[in-house]
Design brief:
397 residues; mainly alpha; Fic-like fold; 3-stranded antiparallel beta sheet; two-stranded antiparallel sheet; 15 helices; 57% helix
Amino acid sequence: MDRDLQGQYIESLIAGEKVRAFVPNPLPPVPPIEWSPKLREKFDQALLALGRLDSVSVLLPDTSLFLYMYVRKEAVLSSMIEGTQSSLSDLLMFEFEYQPGVPLDDVQEVSNYVAALNHGFKRLEENFSLSLRLLKEIHGVLLSKGRGKECDPGQFRRSQNWIGGSHPGNAAFVPPPPEYLLECMGNLELFVHDQPEKTPVLIKAALVHVQFETIHPFLDGNGRLGRLLITLLLCSEKVLKEPMLYLSLYFKTYRQRYYELLNEIRLTGNWETWLDFFADAIIHTATQAVKTAQQLMKLSTEDGLRINGLKRISGSANLIHKAMLERPIASPNWIQEKTKLSPATVNACLRELEHLGIVKEVTGKKRNRLYSYLEYIRIMSQGTELPSKEDTFGDQP
């Protein structure tokens, strides 16, 4: 459905050049969303897919093991969209203070994202509301170290930013001027808390993501935080018990269509086409997450049976296997602390596991070695292959 322009342009002079910044109308859209039978059915399917994903915790022997890696996969993907060149293995090695073969700033940025994710969900578990204060807290963690720490971590911007182009005058999109920012974000917070009207949570998540990206309230990190906001909303309103849904891979795969829809909404108010795309993203991503969990359960069972064949040391090797389900790249020292096994037993078991092809030493060193649970890493790394530069879209509109 085509509506009018979903906001207003504000003209101003920045460094002597005329700039047209876009200030969006408050949510919800006016006139209301037009629900065709096809769109309603798509959202029903999306809710069913979320229900299946939420129930996967019943199948998993330990949901926290899956979440540990899934959160890290999302951190890699969401940061990769912004142009980092860090893989999942790079991040896991970095967490053991091993310097991976990528720029340190890249892997630090991904590590920051893990910390920001964990901070946000921890605050929700403490019954802290999803608010502007929480968004600023998460942003403060996101930009706390490395690249971006000069971009006012935890503070809304006090200057004009822009997306695309070398300066505001030739930008692809210019978000609201800073003096409009608090009003825009205040209205967004009200909508999150069902004012002026109650909105079903899945629809709310779709609308809020677009509005946040349009406002672009921070100097840096808006893309990552805007994608995280979707999952924060679903968890805060108990649609998901655990933070197991992340749309970064879908947005990365269909990035050109994603851009087009964001711009189309601002210019024509065609929210319905965006909602259809968003529902597809939910269905695909939730279904894939369930498949990944099933693959990991199958792998764990099959490798456990192979380890039982080691007989005399199978008990100790099973303890190490369980530890590496938690941390699929790990050092012998960490494994020793986790399992309470002696160094000699850990090293003997790792040699046997390497002989079985379950783990592999990845540093090539005699000291400070790290072992990778190969198939586990392969399953979780699907979709995180490092892109070429033209495959990244950074802080796009």
